[in-house]
Amino acid sequence: MTGCTPDTAASPWSYFFSVAAESSVAFQTESGSIWLAKSDGSSLQLDDSTEDYSPSISYDGSKVVFARLDPATNASDIYSINSDGSDLQLVVSGQGINYLTDPVISPDRSSIAYYCGPAVNGDTNATGCGPLTDGSYRYGGVMRVNIDGSDPRMIVIGGGANLEPVGPTSLSWSPDSQRLAMDGLLTVDLGGGLSTTQRQLFEYRTDGSDLFNNQDPTRQITNFTYDPHAVFPNTPIYAQFSPDGSQLLYMDFVDGNGNQGNFSYLIGVDGSVPHQVFLTPTRPARTAGAVRGPTEGSFPPRLLGRRRLWST
Which domains are delineated in the chain? Predict the structure, then answer.
């Protein structure tokens, strides 16, 4: 769908894309602007700012949301725009103190979920993200805001022990818009006063009732145990719900035989029966928007995650 050039300036995780059911792709260019590649092969530049990143398109392809960085403060804001390039709107302001990232539109188009953390990395005294249900504000967490920018509120204090965006991560809405899946950090006690963290998948309710349940074991989906000193430990990321909401498709860097690479797995939302699936990089004929899973049509017509992982 797009031409590619070697990326020598930054990590490949620095670029983002998102795919709608009708096969339109919202993506970030190397220069930072947001574009839309349409299913008919045409493309449209949605904005020309060099500070925009993390685009996400609604399931029906009608609206795109993205974050815009203020390099002077390292704070960022969330914007929305129609897929025809009209009606650019500021949805949520970082107010010069908050770093907002990874906005994702709910399937019912009523809300946007995103991460909020301090603009100054490592500033654990920051209290700019919220409000919580009691009206207070915290260091960081997962936020939900109405699509028109009204009623921003924190719904989960991070994923696991992860209180701010750390590394390549993403949010995935369930088809009924009632749950969010995300990767997060699980703190593991190694004894002797030592501890480490493991990246696992978690699932939380989006109504705010899981606000303080970020480390509740019943909200944890994967249960990897691995060598914390391994170069590529099991690291589930980029979760995507199946159409009926019963399973998650995710990527791991290590397969069941210890091989390193990019591997696709399915797991029940209750943590049951994780098994590897294969997304072929080629196919005889293009089926618009289809994601290759165990059987044709078994996944929603969106690419897994929102980063450059596979070309399908």
Answer: 15-277 (2.120.10.30)
